[in-house]
Design a protein that fits this description.
The chain is of the alpha/beta class. The protein has a single domain, classed as 6-pyruvoyl tetrahydropterin synthase/QueD (Tetrahydropterin Synthase, Chain A), CATH 3.30.479. The protein is built from three helices and six strands; from the N terminus they run ββαβαβαββ. The chain has a six-stranded mixed sheet, sandwiched between helices. The longest helix has 15 residues.
């Protein structure tokens, strides 16, 4: 099995609903996401995929949706207030935990046909969540 990975850093804000602790308050992170692609064999150029293609897809999606955005659950009452105030927000179906964000990136990177096998998302240098489908 061949594997390649690409990493992108980004800044974001979020909060968790129905959570008791520091993360119930609106706060920010300097996050990092790593997407791993896998293939049983290499393409005609002897690659799993071109790093440039993976990088453009990943960085493009992160820049548009997560970077310098407030990421909030669809039922968070702050979402409408912030959007109405002109703040850049990204809405997710559930609490914007690192796990939910990793799954979202995984699914988005699959859409252009990339052979995604794993996504790891760090919300701090020491805290990381991973999403991969069981084979």
């Amino acid at each position: 099995m061949y594997k390649i990975s690409k990493t992108v850093s980004f800044a974001y804000g979020h909060r968790l609903l129905d959570y008791r602790g520091k993360c119930e308050n609106l706060h920010g992170h300097n996050g990092r996401v790593e997407v791993t692609l896998s293939a049983q064999s290499l393409d005609k150029e002897k690659m799993v995929a071109d790093f440039t293609v993976l990088g453009a897809a990943l960085k493009g999606w992160i820049d548009k949706n997560f970077d310098h955005k407030v990421i909030l659950c669809a039922r968070d009452p702050l979402l409408k207030i912030l959007k109405d105030s002109g703040q850049a927000c990204f809405e997710v179906r559930d609490n914007p935990t690192a796990e939910i964000m990793a799954e979202l990136v995984f699914n988005e990177m699959k859409k252009p046909g990339l052979p995604v096998s794993k996504v790891r998302l760090w919300e701090t240098d020491t805290s990381m969540a991973c999403y991969q489908e069981d084979k």
